Automatic annotation (TrEMBL):
<protein>
    <recommendedName>
        <fullName>WSC domain-containing protein</fullName>
    </recommendedName>
</protein>
<dbReference type="Pfam" id="PF01822">
    <property type="entry name" value="WSC"/>
</dbReference>
<feature type="domain" description="WSC">
    <location>
        <begin position="61"/>
        <end position="154"/>
    </location>
</feature>
<dbReference type="InterPro" id="IPR002889">
    <property type="entry name" value="WSC_carb-bd"/>
</dbReference>
<keyword id="KW-0732">Signal</keyword>
<feature type="signal peptide">
    <location>
        <begin position="1"/>
        <end position="18"/>
    </location>
</feature>
Length: 174
């Protein structure tokens, strides 16, 4: 006997589970969410203001928002304070996972910050200033001192156009 359960959030189909009476597990079936992200495994995220575990790249809905001046590393507002973390080997996967419940993340060298919006004083700078290799992964760009490479959650972009810096091509950051 199979039992199916569909989880709905704000009218969106977010996950479909199927349980076989011969099994005690509830595997998640592959299902596209309304925002277009396919999530598999035990992390049924996507359109729920969360992102999936770093190993599930298809559920990482961040895209490049631009390169911004940030001399104090305080460019993002959080629910109370922006979350700021120091990673010895900063890579986008760690920062995106840390910031999965926020609308934005920004990387600069070894620093990762999370927030729900950019501060009003945020000023874009030349994209070349965000083309510095990340510590821990020289194939990714993490920005120079006093500058942040900022990423926005796709679900919160609306109709906004985002011009990605050279090398990013507007692809999800993770």
């Amino acid at each position: 006997m199979k039992i199916s359960l569909a989880l709905l959030a704000s009218g969106l189909l977010t996950a479909v589970y199927a349980v076989d009476s011969k099994s005690d597990s509830a595997p998640l079936l592959r299902r596209a969410t309304k925002c277009g992200y396919k999530c598999t495994g035990e992390y049924p995220f996507g359109c729920q203001n969360n992102t999936a575990h770093p190993e599930s790249r298809s559920c990482q809905p961040f895209t490049a928002a631009g390169c911004y001046s940030d001399p104090k590393q305080t460019i993002l507002h959080g629910n109370y304070y922006a979350l700021l973390r120091h990673y010895r080997d900063n890579v986008h996967e760690k920062c995106a996972w840390t910031c999965r419940k926020y609308n934005y993340y920004a990387v600069s060298g070894k620093w990762c910050q999370c927030g729900d919006r950019l501060k009003r004083w945020a000023v874009k700078v030349a994209p070349v200033r965000c083309e510095v290799p990340c510590p821990g992964n020289s194939t990714q760009s993490c920005a120079t001192k006093n500058v942040d490479a900022v990423y926005i959650k796709v679900a919160h972009m609306g109709d906004r156009t985002v011009n990605a810096p050279k090398g990013w091509q507007g692809e999800p950051a993770i």
